[in-house]
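Hi team,

Filling in the usual template for the complex we talked about on Friday. All components are listed, including any nucleic acid strands or ligand strings, so the model treats them as one assembly.

SUBMITTER: L.P.
PURPOSE: interface mapping
COMPONENTS: two
RESIDUES: 1250
SEQUENCES:
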Amino acid sequence: MHFCMWIDSNFSLNRRSFLRTSAGGLGTLALTHLLGLENQAAGNASQSVSPLAPKTPHHTPRAKSVICLFQHGGPSQMDLFDPKPELNKRDGQDHPGSLEIHFDKQAGKLLKSPFAFRSVGQSGIELSELLPNTAGIADEITLIRSMITDSVDHESALRIIHSGKFQAGRPTWGSWVIYGLGTERQDLPAYVVLSDPGGLPVDGIRNWTSGWLPAVYQGTQIRSEGTPVFNLEPLADVPAPARENQRHFLEALNRSHLQSHPGNSELMARIRNFEIAAKMQTSVKDVLDLSNEPEHVKKLYGLDHQNKATANYAKRCLMARRLLEQGVRFVQVFLNGQPWDTHDKNAERLRGLCEMTDQPSAALVLDLKQRGLLDDTIVMWAGEFGRLPISQGKDGRDHNRHGFSLWLAGGGFKKGYVHGATDDFGYKSVHDVVSVYDLHATLLHALGLNHRKLTYPHEGRQDNLTDVVITNADPIPELLS
Amino acid sequence: MNSDPSSALLVPGGTKSRIGVVLVLSLVIGALLSDASAAATNSTHWAFQPLIRPAAPASKYAGIIDAFVSTALARKDLHIGEEADRRTLIRRLSFDLRGLPPTPDEAQAFLQDSRTNAYDRLVESFLAAPQYGERWGRHWLDIVGYADSNGYFSADSDRPLAWKFRDYVVRSLNSDKPLDRFIQEQIAGDELVGYVVDGDVTPEMVDPLIATHFWRNAPDGSGESDGNPLEMKVDKYAVLEGNVQIFGTAFLGLTLQCARCHDHKFEPIKQEEYYALQAVLRPAFEIDHWLKPNERLIEIGKRADREEQKRRTAEVERDLKTLNASLEGLIAPFRKQVIDENLAKLEGGLRKEIQQALEVKEKDRDKAVKALLKKNAALVEVSAEELEKKFPTLAAAAEPLKHAIKKRESEKPAPLDQIAGTYESGKTVPAHHLLVRGNHANEGVEVPPGVPAVFHTAYPLRCDCETEEDAGEAASQVPKLASSGRRLALGRWATAPENPIVARMLANRIWNYHFGQGLVSTVDNLGQSGARPASPELLDYLATELIQSGWSLKHLHRLILNSATWKQALASSASVEVEPALVRSEPRRLDAESIRDAMLSVSGELDLASGGPYVPTKTDKQGQVVIDEQQPGARRRSIYLQQRRTAPVDFIGTFDGPAHNPVCVQRVFSTVALQSLSLLNSEFIQVRARAFAHRLLESGAESRETDAILNRAFELAYGRPPTPDELSAAEAFIKEQNVIYRDQKDPTVRVWTDFCQMLLASNAFLYVD
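RESULT (copied from the run log):
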């Protein structure tokens, strides 16, 4: 698998491998894809159709692009988004019902949230005091308080929220979006992952794999520190004119080789890729060069924050906006490890985590709005599951798949809206329950894609992100304005 | 044959034992397989039908493959193309069989060989090369999902002994081990050789036991799993599930995972049948008496010898402990004296504090004590060497003791060699249950072991003692069970000549590796949802030929490589539209490992050492996974590099290296700009280019004509001299670079390095015609 796969217009999937993978019946998109290649083979090779060329969605989209701020570990809903007076009142008592507990030997009593909630914005959404900046964008967001998922195991739950099933090796939803929509900017990756300079998140590169979709649809890691893309920097001891000569010489060799393989689109794509690779050296750097950003913008995000973790996260949020502005379709910002996994010192750790993520996340929404980009961009702030209302050990909270919260902004999602509710303790989603699968169907719907129609031949059938037979996924119209 | 537990049980009276009844399983399967009219299946799907050798059609071609192919092509107004020229053939053949380019000497010898059997001889010499097993072994490792890491969680912990399986595969293919034996060993090598837990492991048993690592290839997170019991159960089941998936894609040509939660919607596989396959493995993967990966080990050697080794090791260790204690006793007063002198300089409070700290036994020291001693290490840490230097009497007294320690250490027996294999504890044969909707918390009906009914067998299989015998009574009559025999039955079933699917799967994969396209294009799926074969007769011919040759892979290679079909030159691209599996029209890009290996070969650096533990990867300061150029073995073939599931070598990954989730059923060949960046800017290609340049400039080449060097460069990289266009472009380039580097250090090497890098980055190097 590709640790980091560049995506560009001059990709060409080897025809044979494509024909091989598509023999078991074809979905509409796969068919278009195939026809594109057929045209190419039929002698129209100079205009080879790229699998990344912009594609027409199934229906009128609300959003064109996505920024996902992923919060590994399972943020605690009752301390951040979902106030529970009853829980606070019965602090220290037994939970009255049965609970699915992960670390059952350490299960404690009901644990109240030490944080005050207040109504914010015109909408009056109640948010925790830990989120003063998110409070500032309350009137822009849809807050879902009734999420459920199917696993309390980190890796499995991550695979569910990223790729629709707990098994490893399935395409992530970012890959599906690029497969469905292509990209408008051909010399930048369509699906960018901004990983934490501190290290990869839990489950590593699987968080952005294209699984069994072609590798062009895989996320490309761009580093916020040091070299943004592997091998982007030219070799230090080869002077620029020497490199220029090398490229000309290489092209001469490849053109000569092409003469004995006339019209071979793959060989031509490889020739053009060298030009693109050269262009990328400037295009990627330009996008990531923050030096021309005005001071007030940097300040808005928190690049000047005294907490280095905050400044770092802020930088990635700002980079996400710049990538989006330049036509990148799908950006994911990740944190190192799984910081929201607060099995102990829940309250103390939440303070630090909110200090890191609250300001930059909110700034991103504000900045996009000011630039008129929010209307057709979905911003999603989410983790893989939530936490339990009882304590784990002295002061921690354990995993919970039966209820958790996340928020979405822009891209047609309602503004200042709260969807669904959990029970009195925040354990179980009880009203307007939203499964991760429904969320996927809704996200695709907002992007103009029908989750049932966005299919790819795999293991002899038309497989897709939501696999309705198993999940009963359906878009939730109430979430969209 | 006493090494065969099931045949040993043929003695009368043995049938009442559990194993004896399991023997019935093999017999039942065998009987059903040979019964062509088996009514158990109602599928008419081609791949499940009995394998019958088709008659070759009349044809102008002598070879049967060509007769089938030309007949199939004729129906579409196509024909087999002209034979490729010898330069093209040797390069194609060399990459196909060895994954490496031919050397200029080999190419020259072939071009000049006027004997009528020159080509046959070339095929034979490449088939006999040790690199053949590495190349085709790599294909097998893809099929079975080989990795050097457990790969379930992010920890992706190490599999330190997996390399023995990799080497077993390479060794087996090089010796042309019959594939039926090869497969049986992997499925049930332990049962084939009658392995008993803690029993003798003689040299003949070693390879079949290593082969059972086959079932250890699936991701296994049970060594790292934590959390509640259900979660741990899920992690254990994941191993069974991964293994059934690997078995299904490797041998049945079916994707079985769908049937984990419900009856398969596209294939005639019921959910119970999925669990019946799991049940075959269950005695080796006992959920309730689980062995974590690093506990599932077999020690090599006779039991008595191993016990003797352990006894001797313990003895030596005990002696060493005593000797070391004596030595320490000798040193201690001197050390105390020195420390006391050191501490005497301190003020009383601190001195006392340190003295008290030193009196605490090492294992009882808390953080504060440790910190205090660390802070004053210069005063309290006195080495034996220092003391001996200071006190000659001590040195003299210590000498004989030290000598004795050294001597005793040399008498310590070598550690026992181990195998990460698969075996049954032999204690219990647990009942296996279907999981309702695949939910691990919801066990459904008990499912006996078996194989899907669609393969001409009855379902459910009557295979365990429960069906005919009183289990409790039967078990009590058997003092100790070697194993259940279930995998042995499965292995025999898989390789029975009457079994149509395994030979078809193998023949199709072999064709696929030779042509870049299977006769059935969906190589992992021969089921109803898979593609139709381009020529069903040809596939069945190859499958029956494989069986009749005694399952010789090399026999099939010879048949295919000697066909006019394989030898044809690239055809017009029009014909590939019609019949992609039977014509050659497109150049094939080298796979990731071949690109790396070929670069090392052309640069003259390739290290052909074979086998042994993997060459470790590292993460460089950019965050890229690489092989450190200074690392011993850094220039070995790619099959020997560490293969961590979550951290593949970036150069390999960039060129579509295998993605084992859990297996790599089909390599893809992408063409993306990241590959261009790698070819332009990676350290790997830069170092190869420099070595390639040095190789060209060696042996007094400074005085040689540019054209002679150029000629050799093209011969090495492309397997042919340059065309006039290439030659003039190269000459012009060399001139230009000479101008640029004129006033710099080592101008010649730099000019030629730039040149060599571009040769290695060019399409004529990366593609094979």
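MY TAKE: The longest strand of chain A covers residues 141-148. Chain A has one domain: 1-193+202-230+286-377+445-481.

Thanks, L.
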